[in-house]
Design a protein that fits this description.
Order of helices and strands: HHHHHHHHHHHHHHH
Low-confidence stretches: 327-341
Number of strands: 0
Number of helices: 15
Structural class: mainly alpha
Number of domains: 1
Shape: globular
Distance between the termini: 44 Å
Helix content: over 70%
C-alpha cells in the first residue's frame, strides 16, 4: 500500500471511529438514567473484549495471545488509562452535568489535539510546530464557548461545574495517553494492541467497580435496568466499542497519533447533530464554538501536510533510456561537454 492510499485509509478509519463515538454521548444520556457509568463500562467492554480476543485468535493464532517477554505492565497502564480512566471519567462527568452533559462532554474531547501535542512533547521531546499552537488555541476557544454558551463570566459564577469539567479534561488526557501508547509496541498489530489493552484495562475497571458496589458508593443495578439499556449496550459494545476502537487504532497506525487525535474534533459535531434531533438544542455560541474546533482540525491538518511535503527531499532525476544510450557530445577541445566546468 503506497503512502497516499495508507493516509486515505487512515483518514477514513479515524473518521468512522469518531463518528461512532459522537453518537455515544447522546445515547449515554438515556443510559445513565438506569445504570451507573462504572457497571456499564464493565458490561460494554466485557462484550467488546471477548470479540477482540476471538478476532485476534482467528487472525494471528495462539502466538497473538502470547505475552511472554512483552511489556505487559506498560500495556496494563495504557489499557487502564483508556478503558478505566477515560470511560469512567467521561461518563461520570457527563452524568454530573445533567441535561447539557452530552454536548459539553463531547466538546471536551476536542481538547485532545492540544493534549496530544503536549504529551508527545513530554514523552518524546518533540516540540509541536509553531502554527499548531495557534490552531490548538482556536480549538480551546471553541471549547470555552461551548462550556460557557458565550457567557465567559459563568466560568467564575458557576464553580459547581468545575469538578465535572475537570473530570472530562482528565478523561481526555487518559485517551490521549492510551492512543500514544501504541507507539511503544511497534511490533504489535493494531488488533493485538487493542485486544491486550482492552482486556488488561477491563481488569482494572472490574476491580474498581467491584469496590464501588461493595462499599455502597454506587447502587447495584437491577435486572430491569440492564434489560432496559440493552439497545444502547449493543451499540456501545459492538459499534462504538469493538468497531470504533479497532478502527481508531488502525487509523492511528497509518496516520500517527498526532494526526489521528485531531479527528476527535469530529465527535462534538456528531453529538451536537444528534442532540439537536432529540430536542436538546445547542445555544448559538455553542454552535460557533463547535465550528471553531472543526476549523482548527481542518487548518491544522492542512498545515501539517504542507509542512511535511515541504520537508520531503526532492526525488532524484532518472535519466531516460535515450539519454543514457546517446553518445556524449564532444566539445571543440575533444572533451565531453560539461566535464571540467
Amino acid at each position: 500500500m503506497n503512502d497516499q492510499k495508507k493516509y486515505a485509509r487512515g483518514v477514513l478509519l479515524c473518521l468512522a471511529a469518531t463518528l461512532s463515538w459522537g453518537a455515544m454521548f447522546p445515547l449515554m444520556d438515556v443510559t445513565l438514567k438506569y445504570i451507573d457509568p462504572f457497571t456499564f463500562t464493565c458490561l460494554r467492554y466485557g462484550i467488546a473484549g471477548l470479540i477482540f480476543v476471538v478476532v485476534l485468535r482467528a487472525r494471528e493464532g495462539a502466538a497473538g495471545l502470547r505475552l511472554k517477554g512483552e511489556r505487559v505492565g506498560l500495556a496494563w497502564l495504557f489499557g487502564t488509562a483508556g478503558f478505566a480512566g477515560f470511560q469512567f471519567l467521561v461518563f461520570f462527568g457527563q452524568d454530573l452535568i445533567g441535561e447539557q452533559g452530552a454536548l459539553i462532554a463531547s466538546i471536551m474531547m476536542a481538547t485532545m489535539p492540544m493534549m496530544g501535542f503536549l504529551v508527545n512533547w513530554v514523552l518524546r521531546k518533540v516540540v509541536p510546530p509553531k502554527w499548531s499552537f495557534a490552531f490548538i488555541a482556536l480549538s480551546f476557544v471553541g471549547v470555552i464557548l461551548v462550556v460557557t454558551k458565550g457567557d465567559l463570566a459563568s466560568l467564575v459564577n458557576t464553580p459547581q461545574n468545575f469538578g465535572a469539567d475537570a473530570l472530562l479534561l482528565f478523561a481526555a488526557l487518559c485517551w490521549v495517553i492510551y492512543t500514544s501508547g501504541a507507539t511503544y509496541f511497534p511490533s504489535w498489530s493494531p488488533i493485538k494492541y487493542t485486544t491486550v489493552t482492552t482486556v488488561l484495562g477491563l481488569g482494572s475497571a472490574v476491580v474498581i467497580t467491584a469496590v464501588l458496589l461493595a462499599t455502597g458508593a454506587v447502587a447495584v443495578p437491577t435486572g430491569h435496568a440492564v434489560v432496559t439499556i440493552l439497545p444502547e449496550l449493543a451499540y456501545m459494545s459492538l459499534i462504538a466499542g469493538f468497531g470504533g476502537v479497532l478502527a481508531w487504532n488502525i487509523g492511528n497506525r497509518n496516520l500517527g497519533p498526532l494526526n489521528g487525535v485531531l479527528f476527535m474534533d469530529v465527535v462534538p459535531i456528531t453529538a451536537f447533530t444528534i442532540s439537536a434531533l432529540t430536542g436538546v438544542i445547542p445555544a448559538g455560541m455553542q454552535v460557533v464554538g463547535a465550528l471553531f474546533t472543526a476549523s482548527a482540525l481542518v487548518l491544522n491538518n492542512l498545515y501539517l501536510r504542507r509542512r511535511a511535503a515541504a520537508a520531503a527531499p526532492a526525488p532524484a532525476a532518472v535519466p531516460t533510456p535515450a539519454a543514457a544510450s546517446a553518445p556524449a557530445e564532444r566539445s571543440p577541445a575533444g572533451q565531453s561537454a560539461g566535464v571540467g566546468r
